[in-house]
TrEMBL record:
This is Metalloregulator ArsR/SmtB family transcription factor. It comes from the Bacteria. GO terms for molecular function: DNA-binding transcription factor activity. InterPro entries: ArsR-like_HTH, HTH_ArsR_DNA-bd_dom, WH-like_DNA-bd_sf, WH_DNA-bd_sf. Coiled coil: none annotated. It comes from Agromyces seonyuensis. Residues 1-92 form the HTH arsR-type domain. The lineage of its organism: Bacteria, Bacillati, Actinomycetota, Actinomycetes, Micrococcales. Pfam families: HTH_20 (PF12840).
Length: 114
């Protein structure tokens, strides 16, 4: 995943309202009006938050008759999770190397103690 993609996802998820919208959409599709009824936010604010989530690739609009509903997309979250796992594994590798270096005797110490 490109860094701008990660930045967009984290920026979108960094807002509490957008996080709650995404959780609500994880339970099933909903319109902006339905989401506004569930959350203490106006429909207009919900629409703006949905636009940010859509831009980040976290939700998509679905037309059902005359109603526009939104659904959560797990693929972008999956890519984000894999990237975080990759970063975590790299840090674990680096920390293990630092630990090995810290616990190994220095080159001169072993011969000077004899």
């Amino acid at each position: 995943m490109s860094e701008p993609g990660l930045v967009a996802v984290f920026a979108a998820l960094g807002d509490d309202t957008r996080w709650r919208i995404l959780i609500a959409l994880g339970e099933g599709e909903a319109s902006a009006s339905a989401l506004a009824g569930r959350l203490p936010v106006t429909r207009q604010a919900i629409a703006k938050h949905l636009a940010v989530l859509e831009e980040a690739g976290l939700v998509e609009p679905v037309r059902v008759g005359r109603e526009l509903r939104y659904r959560a997309l797990g693929s972008e979250l999956g890519r984000t999770a894999r990237e975080l796992d990759r970063i975590g594994a790299e840090w674990e590798r680096r920390l293990a190397l630092i630990k090995r270096l810290a616990e190994s005797p220095a080159d001169g110490e072993a011969s000077s103690s004899a």
